[in-house]
């Protein structure tokens, strides 16, 4: 009886399914009063969220960056592999069928009652069906693990796609902003250059003092010194966009002329 009781306990323990994963509990820092603010309940962002800028140039740049990124292609391949493993794990829980067929041609030597010129053919067809009862929950746990892996790969793909699009949008906005700022500063430099010429002319006529000429010249040089940082920011944005598109760095000097046109349109509007 003791052996029978031990055997029954062992079988009962073996039939138990795998334990469910523990529930996810949000930390106290994530459930503060800020969670009730209106900004925390905004509508879901659309998949192609950069279309909200309504700029065809930006749309082309983002699509080019997404198409040229090798890491994104690897993420798509990983997601396809994870989904294939999920389909395989789910299919393992279904009945498995096997169909076998065979055809055999018997000669007249093995058929004494048949004519010597008429061979006989035998056709065999067999259908086998099997199903795993999954008493121990192995297949169910494997399917759950495959589903979690597919979800993780999909999340990694979405995160990478968002990062690429965000980097492209940020570089493009910085390019447009630097271009617009350069236009404004260049106009200020031209105006102040005329002011320096006018004050210098007044100095020669004895109408102003050298101090006033020095002040105007100092303002002119200070304004002109701000051109270099904007040019560096513009060049940096060009190289970033070119790199995101998988193009050689030399193309940064010749392409993206539409960014200047876009900035000019924004300034005119």
TrEMBL record:
Enumerate the InterPro entries for this protein.
MdtP/NodT-like, OMP_efflux
The record's listing under SUPFAM superfamilies reads: Outer membrane efflux proteins (OEP) (SSF56954)
Task: From the UniProt annotation, give the residues forming the signal peptide.
Answer: 1-20
Q: Which UniProt keywords apply?
A: Signal
Q: Which domain of life is it from?
A: Bacteria
Entry GO MF terms: efflux transmembrane transporter activity
**UniProt keyword Signal, yes or no:** yes
**Pfam families (alphabetical):** OEP
Q: Which family does it belong to?
A: Belongs to the outer membrane factor (OMF) (TC 1.B.17) family.
This one is known as RND transporter
This protein's species is Sphingobium cupriresistens LL01
